[in-house]
Amino acid sequence: MNTAMTVIVLLVCSDVIYMIQGRAIQDPRCRCPKVHAGRVNIRLIRKLTYYPPRSHCSKEEVIVTLETRDPLCLDPNGNFAKTLIERQIKV
């Protein structure tokens, strides 16, 4: 009886691990489902993060973290985002 219970527990654990690994492969996607096309007050920007196209997201992404710690996705093709990226790279 102990052997049967051990086998069942091992099978359940292996199934859980398999499902978790499968989900990790399927879930990665772009971080920005929609983008903000306008300008943002530069004084409110705490951090700028640029993500080039990756294997799980074919788009460029520009994310600013505001002083309120809220993330905001900017349009990477917009003039405002391009200017922010250029200024960050030059620094």
Automatic annotation (TrEMBL):
Residues 1-22 form the signal peptide. Keywords: Cytokine, Signal. One of its GO terms (biological process) is immune response. Residues 27-88 form the Chemokine interleukin-8-like domain. The keyword Secreted does not apply. GO terms for molecular function: chemokine activity. GO terms for cellular component: extracellular space. It comes from the Eukaryota. InterPro entries: Chemokine_CXC, Chemokine_IL8-like_dom, CXC_Chemokine_domain, Interleukin_8-like_sf. The keyword Signal applies. Belongs to the intercrine alpha (chemokine CxC) family. This is Chemokine interleukin-8-like domain-containing protein. It comes from Hucho hucho (huchen). The lineage of its organism: Eukaryota, Metazoa, Chordata, Craniata, Vertebrata.
